Amino acid sequence: MRLRAFLAVLALAVPCVLAEGLPDLGEASQAGFSPLQERRLGESIMREVRADRSFFDDAEATDYINNLGNRLASRSPDSRQDFDFFLIQDGQINAFALPGGFVGVNTGLILAAQSESEVASVLAHEIAHVTQRHIARMIAQQKQSQLVSLASLAAAILLSRVSSQAAEAAAAFGQASVVQGQLNFTRDNEREADRVGLQILDQAGFDPRAMATFFERLQRATRLYETGAPSYLRTHPLTFERIADIQGRTQNLHYRQVPDSLEFQLIRAKLKARFDPPREAVAFFEAGLAERKFLSEAASHYGLATSLMRVRDYARARKELEALRKRAPASPIVETLACELAYNAGDQGAALACYREALKTYPGYRALIYDYANALLQARQPEAALRFIEGRLQSVTDDYRLYLLQARSYAALNKRLGQHRAQAEAYARMGNITAAVEQLQIGLKSGDGDFYQLSSAEARLRELRRLDEELRKEQRK
Length: 477
Ligand SMILES: [Zn+2]
What we know:
By secondary structure, the chain is mainly α. It contains 25 helices and four strands. It has helices at residues 3-13, 35-51, 59-73, 107-112, 116-131, 134-145, 150-161, 166-171, 174-180, 187-203, 209-224, 231-235, 240-250, 262-275, 278-290, 297-310, 314-327, 332-344, 348-361, 366-378, 382-393, 400-412, 416-429, 433-445, 451-476; strands at 55-56, 84-88, 95-97, 102-106. Strands 1-2-4-3 form a four-stranded mixed sheet, sandwiched between helices. Residues 1-31 and 166-173 have low confidence and may be disordered. Bound molecules: zinc ion. Residues 125, 129, 185, 190, 193, 236 line the site of zinc ion (ZN).
């Protein structure tokens, strides 16, 4: 994590929400740290997370983890809490909750899990930390016990949760490292998150026994690690008592065989196919199919087709895709791969036709939308790309990736004002107001745009400047 940049951003963005002293007791919600303030702190951390190389912004995988997470969260005791689930490209087994309902999941966790219920059990546990307000209480206590700025707290939380090399990174920044050691959950927190997490898991229709199974596997794996425990165990200390406790709670529940969803199998295969070295991935899926050793045959064909695409063996990739279609029900994940295959094989016309056809069936599927717009831009059809994106923006107004694609379309059309205006809207939705203001200023100086576009951009600039000022003022207080 680039901590220095992170603190610079924080200095602009984080109001001094904890200026007044907090009453004791763990009542963070009623005391000085409201859910709204917690959300703002979480958003400021997310700005840094999104800028990090390890942030894995794959639309399909992110949509999958959000669908799974929100299905669980809707069964939690506090279903009003907003949740945002996101992925970190990291082989270590880890998942973590940030303030405000942001929950990160390492790709390594999904790959290590042997069933969807296992992934769900870790998510349910993290969701419980959020709804039980463990993080808010932890922050409130830190503010009471020592003079720590919110910025260094945020940095410490980020380091202790996200980074695999948290220890070294924290050592480079004194104050954060002081706080960081005290930001772990207590044993009581863990027990409560297990208890509530199990209820959520059961209510959402997953196998509650998967929690103990997964934690046991983690613990066994720990003994094999020479360099120390997986990150997850650093922030969620795991003991034999805890596992026994979880097992005791699940004893009275009905046994339930829960089949994995097709999405889980396909996304898991996708991560393997994308992150392993390409030849190794091909060999892995080939061997699995040859020996019939797999969790899902359809997913193995999907994984093999994806890996073959990476090594540019398009003819064999197409055959695997056909094998996949015979074994899997209709799915936007399969159609997205089919179109991507045509696109990567260099058949532009076929790729564009494929996207148009797939979008008829799955008009709201983000991966298809982004890939189609990108294919249009690559095919030098910026007008068509712009029409398509602006059609989407009629109904979806909070997606920064649509604005980034809009900016690229305007750039290709040499429309400077439109380009910088769209770039500004993208930054604003990523929470970077200062950068948004800069983009509008550049756009207005470009000498481009008609009267209507110019006055609209000027009005937006005034609005964003006011917001930028407010945030700076709050910081100075
Ligand atoms: Zn925990």
